Amino acid sequence: MDSTDLSDDVASLERRIEDLAASAERSRRLALIARVSATAAGLWLVAGTFALVPLEATGLVMAIGIVLGGIVLAGSSRSTADELDATIRKAEAERSRLIDSIDPSPVDPRFEAIEPLSRTLH
After folding, report:
1. Does the predicted model carry a pTM greater than 0.70?
2. What angle, 0 to 180 degrees and rounded to 10, lies between the N-to-C axes of helices 3-49 and 57-101?
């Protein structure tokens, strides 16, 4: 493989990593919304239990459904985000491997003899 193909592969992996990161962020946001909804419905159920708000049969069933649905959706979204994070780590490792395999040649041979600058301040 020549360095052009490797560079294209690296660019493709970088685009994939960006797409996966966006998907993971959407999953986290959905999990947050689900937790907030479940919490709000749970608080409404508690308030209805103590007669702070009117609690009718329809509202009771809806609140219980929202609590259960929110819990399920939050868990599912969280596990999806975790799977996406694992896929991102694998893609980043592959990108690093490809970058390491590219053997960049200096533009000017005179620069081959130059020592890299020290990273210390003293």
Report:
1. yes
2. 160
